[in-house]
Design brief:
alpha/beta; about 40% helix; 3 domains; TATA-Binding Protein; about 575 residues; Alpha-D-Glucose-1,6-Bisphosphate, Chain A, domain 3; six-stranded mixed β-sheet
């Protein structure tokens, strides 16, 4: 992009304001070096915009600039959050957690001191803790809000800032909109601060009580549907925390269940560089390679992986009796197995009186979950992508606005699952325990998880999906993403796409009765395929989800054609 003199002057001015306001020498020197070198392209990329809240808060590349995540941006956003909390209640309280990423402890401390300086009672974890334990802590301590410093499963160069509300879920309208408005209005001179010594001595800043962790562990144990089958079971679990915050809680829970657990030693310790993986995401085959190799050596009955903030859970299962081969399940396959197990167990145990169990799934999660729910006498609700929308459905029950249901299960195809009501975000820790319980139960019946999955397909038909994404970095990338979505919205029924005829198109930016407005397009084809297109709320990319289904007899043929189908869609999108 060719920069005009006006653009250059504006960017240089913003960079100057930033260096005068950034309290961290590392980030300040990065920008000062760019100014000294007159690297206008790099300066433009660092300052042409400011990080914004998306489906999971604020997330960006670590570095100096308003389009990066750094101490200044964390303090700026936190000042906006403090202003909102103080306007919302007379005595606000906030809990802060952080994961293993670079600068996570520093960002958490900076946020805590801004909150404390604004008179907000603040609890700051002394060690890294995962997302689900923060969500639980907010509810347990009856706090006004919570913060987690994390970039979830993104590459090592990223970090992020997630905001939670008093229900334990990520902020939704109107809270997120107002926090963003206030944060955007904050100038450097508005940001309040105080020393950590002063904050701790005054009592306005303290650690999170150990009793909160213990309450979480007890809750997870009590959530087991068939504890007698799990406790002391002679099985072996292979596990990797992928250098993240799941190591302590997952192993703590398995230890309390007296389950033999083998951990990938090279991935056991927290490390924000994630040296053994290119992407610390348990849905990545590359990320799960080491734990699967460990599983083969110890003959593990089930394989678990969690991402750095332990909200996503990966699962691999043996495909043969001698446990020399393992299948890494997709998020939809895990959701299918868990939904089937939880629903059938609930029905067997009598449910919850006259109220129906509720399963909540994102709109890009397999419709097979819906079929299973309906056949088991449950309700199933689709929501926008982002687990905060699942939490909002849980709140409808908690606050008595939904008297017909009780919450059973929430799921997203991107490896996010929730099997407990006391946490209002995806929870890899409790979900891992539910998966182990499920495996133990079927093993007691002489059934493997692979056999159970096959029997589900045999009963309901075969459901599968194809997912791909395209990245669009920088300012030009953002413009290109807008053009792509505009062109897709111009399509009409009868038009062709990917060699198929469009039957219907649903634009969620338009008024509809099912979802709030969102930058999502859903296309259904006359052949039964469904395509969902969604720009990411946290990354510069567009995601494409292709859903395919066949009758009981068509599984092999569909599997053989998946590669061809994927290329057809990629060539047209």
């Amino acid at each position: 992009m060719e920069l005009t003199k006006e653009m250059i002057d504006s960017i240089v001015a913003k960079a100057g304001e930033y260096t005068a306001s950034e309290t961290d020498g590392f980030f300040r020197s990065q920008v000062e070096d760019l100014l000294e070198k007159k690297d206008l392209e790099a300066l433009y990329d660092a300052f042409y915009t400011s990080l914004a809240f998306g489906t999971a808060g604020m997330r960006g590349v670590i570095g100096g600039g308003t389009n990066r995540i750094n101490t200044f941006m964390v303090r700026k956003v936190t000042q906006g959050l403090a202003d909102y909390c103080n306007s919302f209640t007379k005595e606000p309280e906030v809990v802060i957690a952080y994961d293993s990423r670079h600068y996570s402890p520093e960002f958490a401390r900076s946020a805590a001191l801004v909150l404390a300086a604004n008179g907000v009672r603040t609890y700051l974890y002394d060690t890294l803790h995962p997302v689900p334990m923060l969500s639980f802590a907010v509810r347990n301590l009856k706090a006004t809000a919570g913060i987690v410093i994390t970039a979830s499963h993104n590459p090592a160069k990223y970090n992020g800032y997630k905001v939670y509300w008093s229900d334990g879920g990520q902020v939704t309208p109107p809270h997120d909109i107002e926090i963003a408005r206030l944060a955007n209005a904050v100038t450097a001179s508005d940001i309040r601060d105080m020393s950590e010594q002063e904050a701790r001595e005054s009592g306005i800043l303290s650690g999170v009580p150990d009793s909160v962790d213990e309450a979480y562990y007890s809750m997870v144990l009590s959530s087991l549907r068939r504890p007698d089958i799990v406790k002391g079971s002679p099985i072996t679990v292979a596990y990797t925390p992928l250098h993240g915050s799941g190591n302590v809680p997952v192993r703590q829970m398995l230890s309390r269940l007296n389950i033999r657990t083998c951990v990938v030693r090279e991935q056991e310790e927290p490390d924000g560089a994630f040296p053994t993986v290119s992407l610390p995401n348990p849905e990545s085959h590359e990320a799960m390679t080491r734990v699967i190799e460990l599983a083969k050596s110890v003959k593990a009955d089930i394989v678990l992986g969690t991402d750095p903030d332990a909200d996503r859970m990966g699962l691999a299962i043996p495909t043969n009796a001698d446990k020399t081969d393992y299948l890494l399940l997709t998020g939809n396959q895990i959701a299918t197995l868990l939904a089937d197990y939880l629903l059938s167990t609930s029905r067997e145990k009598g449910g919850c009186g006259s109220r129906k169990p509720l399963v909540v799934k994102s709109l890009v999660t397999t419709d097979l979950v819906r079929k299973i729910a309906l056949e088991n006498g449950a309700d199933c609700r689709d929501v926008l992508t982002g687990f905060k929308y699942i939490a909002r459905e849980m709140n409808e029950i908690d606050q008595g606005r939904n008297k017909d249901n009780w919450f059973l299960f929430g799921c997203e195809e991107s490896y996010g699952f929730l099997t407990v009501n006391e946490v209002h975000d995806k929870d890899a820790v409790s979900s891992a325990m539910a998966a182990v319980e499920m495996m133990c139960y079927y093993a007691s019946k002489g059934i493997t998880l692979q056999q159970r999955l096959d029997s589900i397909y045999a009963h309901y038909g075969y459901y599968t999906e194809l997912v791909f994404s395209r990245d669009y970095e920088g300012a030009e990338g953002r413009i290109r993403m807008q053009e792509i979505m505009k062109n897709l919205r111009a399509l009409r029924p009868g038009d062709g796409l990917a060699g198929r005829t469009i039957e219907s198109l649903e634009d969620l930016l338009e008024e509809n009765g099912s979802f709030p407005k969102a930058d999502v397009v859903i296309i259904r084809f006359t052949g039964g395929e469904k395509l969902v297109i969604r720009p990411s709320g946290t990354e510069p990319k567009i995601k494409y989800y292709i859903f395919l289904t066949e009758g009981r007899a068509g599984r092999r043929e569909l599997e053989e054609r998946k590669g061809e189908i994927l290329e057809e869609f990629k060539a047209s999108l």
